[in-house]
Amino acid sequence: MLDNSGYICTPDTMPCDGTSNTNPNYDSLNGIIIGGKNSPYGTAVSNQVNLGFAPRIGFAWDPMGQGKMSVRGGYGMFIESPGVGFVENSVFSNPPFDDL
Amino acid sequence: MDNPGSAHAAPNNTPLPLSATAPKFKQPYTQNWDLDIQKELPYNIIADLGYYGSKGTHLLAVADINQPVAGAYASYSGAANYPDVYTPGGINSGNENYANPLRPYIGYSGIDMYLPIFISNYNSLQASLQKRFTADSLLTINYTWSKNLSNVPCDPNYTVPQYTYDLKSEYSYARFDQRQVFNADFVYQLPFFKEQHGLAGPSAGRMAVFGDYCSELRALDGSVGVRWL
């Protein structure tokens, strides 16, 4: 059913109830993982990687042996530090904090 | 008060948007590799030609994991209850809320999740010539021919992929893809006070004019200045 604001209120996990009231069965935390309660990362925003494997290897070679030419090559792995501050910015628009 | 509830403002029954971090988080990383040949040529010129590549894995960006799947509107079983709403012509920006019953997680609107599932790659040919003159003067020209592909959206924090369930269709030139870059720079040591005699010598004698010029696909930039060497 449509409520007065034009929101569709079925199924009953929707926040509206078909009138202008709030659905009493609506659970704004329906299945949401909450930091510090049931998050796999505890109170942190993401997992903490304390052991980073980032090997670097390279070579330089003088094929003529005269110091006039050099062949160089390299490989490296670089770990990115995630900018999770973006997620923290949005925390207070999520339930249960959105009503505060 | 007989009826305290009556004083409340009308409840906001809009399904909530959420922002979230991926429950299965992976550390993003890049791998870089290169192979480069440098050769000394006559007239104090050094030539440099190299291949440089890189690959990004588990890159982070936001995607809406609560996007209705393609076809959800056409096959919505509840549509018959809302003949005025679910009409041919479909959902537009003015009645987006009708998409809410079609979402995977019903009761919420968009769920922007920070997901470590994006990729990138970069391949380039980089060439350079450097001519060294007597004293410390030099002239360098560089050229880069490169291609940078990725499925990370334009702004990884705020623009979501057009269709979450098909990231391959998002794979294209990265925002910072630069197909060609040409740049050049020079340093010219001024000919006076070279011997560094007298009062002004020790400082002025090491003065040089330098400059650079850079051309990217869409931008031109150049500068010239004076500095102490």
Element layout with pairings:
The complex is a heterodimer of chains A (100) and B (229).
Chain A: E1 56-61, E2 69-79, H1 85-90
Antiparallel strand pairs in A: 1-2
Chain B: E1 16-21, E2 29-41, E3 45-64, E4 108-132, E5 138-150, E6 172-173, E7 180-189, H1 201-204, E8 207-215, E9 220-228
Parallel strand pairs in B: 1-4
Antiparallel strand pairs in B: 2-3, 3-4, 4-5, 5-6, 5-7, 7-8, 8-9
Task: List its traits.
heterodimer; A: 100 residues; mainly beta; two-stranded antiparallel ribbon; 1 helix; elongated; B: 229 residues; Maltoporin, Chain A
Task: Describe the structure concisely for a colleague.
Chain A is built from one helix and two strands.
Shape of chain A: elongated
Helix and strand content put the structural class of chain A at mainly beta
Mean pLDDT of chain B: 81
Q: Please mark out the parts of chain A with pLDDT under 50 across 5 or more consecutive residues, or reply none.
A: none
Radius of gyration of chain A: 27 Å
Q: CATH top level of chain B?
A: Mainly Beta
Compressed to H and E, one letter per element, the order of chain B equals EEEEEEEHEE
Number of domains of chain B: 1
Poorly predicted regions of chain B? none
Overall geometry of chain B comes to elongated
CATH third-tier fold name of chain B: Maltoporin, Chain A
> Strand fraction band of chain A?
15-25%
Summarize the amount of helix of chain B as a percent range. under 10%
What structural category do the secondary elements of chain B indicate? mainly beta
CATH 2nd-level architecture of chain B = Beta Barrel
Strand order of the largest sheet of chain A: 1-2
Question: Number of DSSP helices of chain A?
Answer: 1
